[in-house]
Here is the input.
Amino acid sequence: MLPLVVVVRQCSRTRCTGRAVVTMTYDYGEATAVVGPLSPVAQKGALDLCEDHAQSVTVPRGWSMVRLVTEYEPAPPSDNDLMALANAIKEASQRRAPEPRPAQREVRRQSDVPGQVGPKLRAVPNPEENND
Here is the structure.
């Protein structure tokens, strides 16, 4: 039986290996950032933040920040994620491996390729010989 693998999302901040606990989204038109519960799936343009970065994140001057979450705890994997992973593993385990075939090796020289002409050789006179 294959071990169950649970994917844990990491913090989006550079060089941070902390586990993401919140998702921060932006509304540029409203100049607002919203820190809320960790989204079920990673979203393009949103930041997943660990607890340390969620508490210390700031927004540009003139922006407002809305915090929908003040207590941070990692979100458990959803049933959908676990079922999708289990189904993928089950499907992969039921596939048959292709039958092995002997390797075919074909060696070709440039002169063996139709339409190709080999290198052009010509004699170069030796400057030390006097051909008077």
